């Protein structure tokens, strides 16, 4: 399927979603939102996909909402709704955008190839891991538009860097370079710029070697228990263990491969 604003490919068990509006630093417009949502749904439905990588073309990862699409008036601070459903959605597209990334049931790696600003920064924050290079930059930007954070930033950012550092970045809207981003935890890996995608795929492949159901359940348990109390967390862990054991073939293969000192071959069953 051809796309206007994204590139989408799979490499064995890794799906790569590339935002492809380099002339606008991959800013989010209605078409890009629709095509990204379709690609994420496709990756979700494809059981051969075990990890999703999201990145951008050109100098930007994603510069946020495309302000060239802004209409006149106060409500024209974001791209216009793509359809009538969006007009009736009290969260708007930004709420669905945040939930789409966070609820994706397989690990997501953001390969942050350049500037990540506004909703583009939120997109990177919603990933499970972020890989960057010396050209990576983060900027919250919302306050410069007389806006409070949206697209999940107020949720993700303080959980990654802590409240005070999140307040610093949001209230000042200062640019954060790659070295500081790594120190703050905004980036989990720093790699050479020319090797960004290669290193991100390598990281993804470290994950795809494990049983796919266990990988998905581990993500679900980790997300749930990040905010849960201990008793609730232990109950949810037990549920997760039960789900993992249902993949009887992979569970048996894991034990046999360990005993036979060979690489396991997981099928997701």
Word description of this protein:
There is one protein chain. This protein has 269 residues and is α/β, with parallel strands linked by helices. The protein is built from 11 helices and 10 strands. The strands form 2 sheets. Strands 1-2-3-5-7-10 form a 6-stranded mixed beta sheet, sandwiched between helices. A 4-stranded mixed beta sheet has the order 4-6-8-9. A hairpin with a 2-residue loop joins strand 1 (6-11) and strand 2. It is globular and about 60 Å long. Mean pLDDT is 88; it is low at 71-78.
Name the features.
10 strands, 6-stranded mixed beta sheet, Lyase 2-enoyl-coa Hydratase, Chain  A, domain 2, alpha/beta, 2 domains, 2-enoyl-CoA Hydratase, Chain A, domain 1, 4-stranded mixed beta sheet, 11 helices, 269 residues
What is shown here, in short?
The chain is an alpha/beta fold and 269 residues long. It has helices at 30-45, 84-88, 92-103, 119-126, 153-161, 163-172, 178-184, 196-208, 212-225, 230-246, 248-260; strands spanning 6-11, 14-19, 51-56, 60-62, 108-112, 115-117, 129-132, 137-139, 176-177, 189-190.
């Amino acid at each position: 399927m051809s796309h206007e604003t994204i590139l989408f490919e799979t490499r064995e068990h890794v799906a790569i979603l590339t935002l492809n509006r380099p002339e606008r630093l991959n800013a989010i417009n209605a078409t890009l939102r629709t095509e990204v949502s379709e690609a994420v749904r496709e990756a979700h439905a494809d059981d051969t996909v075990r990890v999703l990588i999201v990145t951008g073309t050109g100098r930007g990862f994603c510069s946020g909402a495309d302000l060239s699409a802004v209409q006149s008036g106060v409500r024209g601070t974001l791209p216009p709704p793509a359809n009538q459903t969006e007009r009736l959605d009290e969260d708007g597209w930004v709420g669905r955008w945040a939930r789409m990334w966070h609820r994706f049931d397989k690990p997501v790696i953001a390969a942050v190839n350049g500037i990540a600003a506004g909703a583009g920064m939120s997109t990177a924050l919603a990933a499970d891991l972020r890989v960057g290079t010396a050209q990576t930059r983060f900027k919250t930007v919302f306050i410069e538009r007389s806006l409070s954070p949206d697209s999940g930033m107020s949720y993700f950012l303080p959980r990654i860097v802590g409240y005070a550092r999140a307040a610093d970045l949001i209230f000042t809207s200062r640019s954060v370079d790659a070295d500081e981003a790594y120190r703050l935890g905004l980036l989990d890996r720093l790699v050479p710029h020319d090797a960004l995608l290669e290193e991100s795929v390598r990281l993804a492949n470290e994950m795809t070697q494990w049983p796919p159901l266990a990988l998905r359940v581990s993500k679900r348990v980790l997300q749930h228990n990040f905010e849960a109390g201990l008793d609730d967390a232990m109950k949810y862990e037990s549920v997760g263990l039960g789900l993992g054991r249902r993949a009887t073939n992979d569970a048996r293969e894991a034990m046999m491969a360990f005993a036979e000192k060979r690489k396991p071959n997981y099928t997701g069953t």
